[in-house]
Amino acid sequence: MITASNLELRAGSRILLADTTLRIQQGDRIGLVGRNGAGKTTTLKVLAGEGEPYTGEVRHGSDLGYLPQDPREGDLSVSAKDRVLSARGLDVLVRDMEKAQTAMSELVDDAARDKAINRYGRLEERFSSLGGYAAESEAARICANLGLADRILAQPMGTLSGGQRRRVELARILFAASEAGAGGKSDTILLLDEPTNHLDADSITWLRGFLKSHEGGLVVISHDVELLGEVVNKVWFLDATRGELDHYNMSWQRYLDARATDEKRRRRERANAEKKASALHQQAAKLGAKATKAVAAKNMARRADQMLADLDDTRQADRVAKIKFPAPASCGKTPLTAEGLSKSYGSLEIFTGVDLAIDRGSKVVVLGLNGAGKTTLLRLLGGMEPADTGSVVPGHGLRLGYYAQEHETLDHDATVWENIRHLSPDTGAQELRNLLGSFLFTGEQLEQPTGTLSGGEKTRLALASLVSSAANVLLLDEPTNNLDPASREQVLDALRSFDGAVVLVTHDPGAVEALEPERVILLPDGTEDHWSADYLDLVQLA
Ligand SMILES: Nc1ncnc2c1ncn2[C@@H]1O[C@H](COP(=O)(O)OP(=O)(O)OP(=O)(O)O)[C@@H](O)[C@H]1O
Ligand SMILES: [Mg+2]
């Protein structure tokens, strides 16, 4: 059980959550939802004991497994497999066994070899009495289900992509939680922040099944409505403008119905309040004409203003970023060409001999399984890293805009304002301020260090920086990740109306439909084909 009492959470001077009590018990499967920046990640971090609340206390009565939204740094030299096994303290044993094994086969001195054999025997006995063999195969099963191939598990964490690292962390947590406790079931509480980011469709389906049958307690933050629909039996809705968290002890579908009813009631109340306020104002104006009633009139007007101000608060919660992409600068017929691109990491060949020509205004989708090199191809095209062979040839008038999945185009130590300033030095300050405003960055938030932005806010800022660039070729790597449904719709609209060329990598079929691509490039072969609806099934698998 986790209990949090008298909780208050703040972001800078803003109150995210005030005077709240939260409890997570066995059998709870809670979906934590709310708009981007509402404070979901902050709440989960505090529940996990990794963040300090402004006030209040968090108590832990059982083990927990916490998956943060951003991959944690940690020791990057350990292998992915050891990282997973370390969840049950098996990594050291396995490593010692391997060492003893090597010694057994390599030592020539009889006495020393006998010692190694004895040592191996002792370690092996401990390993098997701890259920090591079963555990090892269970870990392998979980990893396979999360799309982590053996070859990846052998690599040191430092060589893995952000997405792969995150999958290893998820595997580690699920491995720890799948350990049967005394009563035959695990009582580990899982706290998962957007666990489906970076997962392919098969892994997501498997994860849903795993979470559905997890009995130890679970809080999951997710924008994946299918996952919520299948897994959760309670919903926590975080409303940062009110600083409150609403509890719904019901399934996702019943919650959606309840919210729709609530929304209707709120709209009615809003209309009522507006009517009352305007009546009060009229009254006040009449009263104000008489000198003796001036004070009463003033009070009345103040009450009306207060009523409307309360309304503004709720309105702000409903605000949605107006995301649009730039008006593209003019360019030649084929602004971007690539010839014979190859890339390997060490002995691992990602792709070879990829040719590509991006015509003005053309829309291209890049498909390929996890690890086929989609992000790598975009990075080569964007000049973020050099190709091993081949070249990227800019055409006449090319202006590239690159949206990176891991937001590496943003300087995390600089403020929001400094970032946008730096990325568009030629645009006037007022224009930039307007632009940021339409992407919902105003006031204090302009001075916030970019590293402290929420996942969805970082996505929004990176997209904003594209707009001022007048790019005529956009390279977009998973531009809808992390976004709440309303903001995602905005990105889809922006995609629909953009006149320039787009090269898109995504798992989101909605994004592909919005783009209406003419062509598809299949990795790792680099084969090009006309787009047809048949490819849509591949998008989610990719
Ligand atoms: N040091 C800070 N100063 C000011 N504001 C901060 C700071 N750190 C975080 N914030 C703000 O706190 C708010 C809550 O962030 P949090 O990451 O909890 O949101 P979230 O609900 O998880 O959003 P998302 O859906 O985008 O992941 C955000 O608006 C963020 O910008
Ligand atoms: Mg978050």
Automatic annotation (TrEMBL):
Domain of life, source organism: Bacteria
InterPro entries noted in UniProt: AAA+_ATPase (IPR003593), ABC_tran_Xtn (IPR032781), ABC_transporter-like_ATP-bd (IPR003439), ABC_transporter-like_CS (IPR017871), ABCF (IPR050611), P-loop_NTPase (IPR027417)
Organism: Amycolatopsis marina
Occurrences of domain ABC transporter (ranges): 2-265, 336-541
Descriptive protein name: ATPase components of ABC transporters with duplicated ATPase domains
Database matches in Pfam families: ABC_tran, ABC_tran_Xtn
Single GO molecular function: ATP binding
Keywords: ATP-binding, Coiled coil, Nucleotide-binding, Repeat
Any coiled-coil regions, as ranges: 270-317
